[in-house]
Amino acid sequence: MKEFLKTLKKSFLIAGAILAMNGCKIDTDPLDRYTDVAVYQNPANIRLYIIGMYNEFNTFKFGTFPIGYDNATDALTDLMKYTSGVSGNGTVNILASDASRVSAAGPQLNYWTAGYARIRRLNEFLEGLDTKAQGLDEGTKLKFQAEARFIRGYVYFWLVKMHGSVILQDKLTSEKDKQRSSEDECWNFIASDFSFAAEYLPKTWDAGNTGRATKGAAYGMLARTWLYAASIAEYDKKQFNADELTGVPAAKATAYYTNASNAAEEVKKLAAEGLYDLEANFASIFTNKNTKEAIFKIDFIRPQLTHQYDLGFAPPKDAPGQVLVYGVPTAELVDEFEMSDGSTFSWSNPAMAANPYANREQRFNATIIFNGSSWKGRTVNTTPSDGVEGITEYGASTDPKKTVSGYYAKKFLDPLNTQIVINKSDQSWMELRYAEVLLIDAEAKSKINDIAGAKTSLNILRNKRGLPNTPSQTPAELMNAVEHERIVELAFEGHRYWDLRRWRKAHVVLNNVRFTGHKGTPVGSSVSYTTVPVDNTNRQFTPALYYIPIPLDEILRNNSITQIKGW
Prior knowledge:
Layout: H1 2-8, H2 36-40, H3 43-53, E1 80-82, H4 91-97, H5 112-131, H6 138-163, H7 183-200, H8 215-235, H9 253-272, E2 294-298, H10 309-313, E3 327-329, H11 331-334, H12 350-354, H13 362-367, E4 368-369, E5 374-375, E6 378-379, E7 408-409, H14 420-423, E8 429-433, H15 434-447, H16 451-464, H17 475-490, H18 496-502, H19 506-509, E9 516-523, E10 526-533, H20 552-557
């Protein structure tokens, strides 16, 4: 990796090992600013150009999209509460409680212009490979095409899971006016890009190219794509808007779940070859740059390339007066973690309530900092008696920079980084890891009535996390088990909001509700916990939000496109 950095001379960095972060620009200039000789007749420049395209993954690292703050996507859900109530640090709270903020004039979740700018650049690259590139053997050319289509598939994946029906551009065109394609066509288009990438990308790259997309990454994204398409086919059923182009025919659900499972099986085959594996120590996954759980990731290199995750989420005493504490875990997330023997935690159980954080599963201790946690040589006190790290009521201060739920987020924090202001952070962001693939496989197989196969994938994950086999026996029970596992396994990885949307549960789980925390009160030598609200107004998620409106300026520019009905 160091050798590759020297070679690139700070000009380009790529996803997984060398993506530029914190404003470091890695894009090459548009093709029309280069001569064909400079770009396409020099294989080294072709390589640098596609490396520059990996910058797109920077947009979505650590769940920053669309609000620009780490974990903001999870803060739209029942897993995390942002502590501030004012615009900026608290924008996510404003959006979570006011559905009227989303409109065609201000979609809020807006990637349209940036996404299509990237798609055009990728299509330029693909055309250049076909018509202008010299000095490439056929295998190398196909790898470049596969990389470009992997990135294009990823861009379209984001556009489609927001809008459902979007404009498909598979090549350069001067056509200004074009209608949206159907949602079903869109998911199939994305799948074709990832399928092509899976066919022609290598299983691994050499050390000088670590971090570029691989066969496993393409199959994993293909599995994710088909799972989303299948979920829409099963759960949407045209209940939430009358637009002719949104939705996926319900009859296709089984086939698409099968496709998802088949793609996941390809990743499992690669794991059997030793390319991927689950870690026995869950906490180590998120600070170990060489973890075999990572299928596709963005690495950072201190001091050149860092981020500010620790400063954003560490408990205040890590850097008094400077830590920001953007968001904190909710009680809803905390209560989801099982006991170490696999039994369900319950505050109604007197023994559990008396010592609620003892004997919980390992993912709990790796994800949550709770009252009494040992952290960086101190015992964290989240009761009101600690004026620095203790709980405060949400809304009592506009930007309290301390917990409002009685918890802090531990996952992704670096326990060895004791100078987070000076050092900043260099933990990797994993866009796709092996645990998610197993969960995709379990969900897909439960839907096609492969109960044994679903349980196998689920139990591989649970057993590695130190838990017994799932007791689930029916498809419905397995689906509940999958949702539970996705909550505790993938917390703060940006999946929950999109899961609730694809399952068409967001208008139930995220609407007309206030989420909670746990306030500890010392009682003699013990602590008594009471449930407290972390919201001071109800959350809102209206059914119309399942399809974000096309930005109004695009409607005005394009004479053929129609707005998604309902907006």
